[in-house]
């Protein structure tokens, strides 16, 4: 069959790859499988139930889950095949943003996973005239459950209406509105058509490796990134297109347990997760003590010295792999073919280390507005430090100021109810302005160097690209997060969130008392001096105008809930500066 709409992917899977474990979710400690046939049966019931609720093509339905689960997948197909528009929302954003999104999109019904999200939506329900009802996936006393919609659709005599609506849906029709969390301002509703997403899935599919000896029925996926993010959602359709089994992780906290249980072949990751995985491996390896720690550190040295990415060659590399890196792969379930990384820049040092440990990472690049993939590395063509080659169906143009612009079928149709912002997002010749700075090298690999809007100029007129410096700084074991500042100031400075866990272990080994709370640690002279050495080393690799002249340690970890990180763990620079304005003023000698 020809795939033109997002609901064609599960239909394609039913025709070509029927399986007993199309989707797998853990409920009450037990993994429960949903077959391809049962999935379609449930999606059709949802479609019929929504029609009985009065839903028409173009109506907006919101989906919010703390963790992705089979119910989300069922709702996605049930909504899309009758021409309604899904509006997935991040569970972690503020009630104020919920209020804005629900009113802007004119949400008619909302489906949430649990009590916390129900309470969050109930707080703003009275402010949203269009909202007719809220359904929950969990059984919650006193609330309407999604099974009520399923039950409404039990009568299959109206299935013909569902089929007629599905057949009438054009590939250029609106499929979803995804509100970008953004690092500043109100969320923007990115309108993506069926064609936008389908074209991106089909163009990205050749970049996923095919391994000899493995059939589609063997491949297992562990999905844990928020499916409201277009990166995970596009992959969600790609997995259906290939007939893979998708298990939904319970939470990031239970990732280790879920990986051991599922033993996945492919997982998508964000750079911060890769960093955390490595930190955990490093802490375990160095704290083992004695010969074990010596072997671990020796193996890291062998890994670092390895010139060509690939299988171990030579006696040292083979021994290091058997003694150390084999355990890394076993820690990821033992079956990993590749990790697919997106959302932010991955440190080349870490990327190379995992590649050399036999855990290939396919780093890519894209935005919500591009559905999302613009470019991605592929097996046999991995170039560390780049985001790979541009997809074959896209055209990328680097503007005179270095901004990456793109044109093609996966570029969105515009921002919902915002013609002015839509117009501003494109060049006169129709290229979407990504806001990222980069270049394409002689081999055709795309390099991302910074965010255009995040570059700033010091009072001396020198431009500074903070992300480049920040990514280098986070190579330090002592630095969990860092934000380089200095727009309009005479010099670059930085706000630093230490890795408090690592700092505690370091102090214990050194016999130092740096306190027990994060606030006490941030005030520790010893810790600040030690991190100062890391900053001094970083400065040796920077131009004089880029060097960090002063820094302050923040007294707490940076979180999404504080409103200073986006749901994909990017820095909200304005909010960070406001939260730590006293520390900022201290560095520059400003009066509070």
From TrEMBL:
Gene3D superfamilies cross-referenced by the UniProt entry: N-terminal domain of ligase-like (3.40.50.12780)
InterPro entries reported in the protein's UniProt record: AMP-binding (IPR020459), AMP-binding_CS (IPR020845), AMP-dep_synth/lig_dom (IPR000873), ANL_N_sf (IPR042099)
Keywords noted in UniProt: ATP-binding, Ligase, Nucleotide-binding
Annotated AMP-dependent synthetase/ligase domain residues: 13-416
CDD domains: VL_LC_FACS_like
Gene Ontology MF annotations: ligase activity
Keyword GTP-binding assigned: no
Keyword Nucleotide-binding: yes
Superkingdom of the organism of origin: Bacteria
Protein name, per record: Long-chain fatty acid--CoA ligase
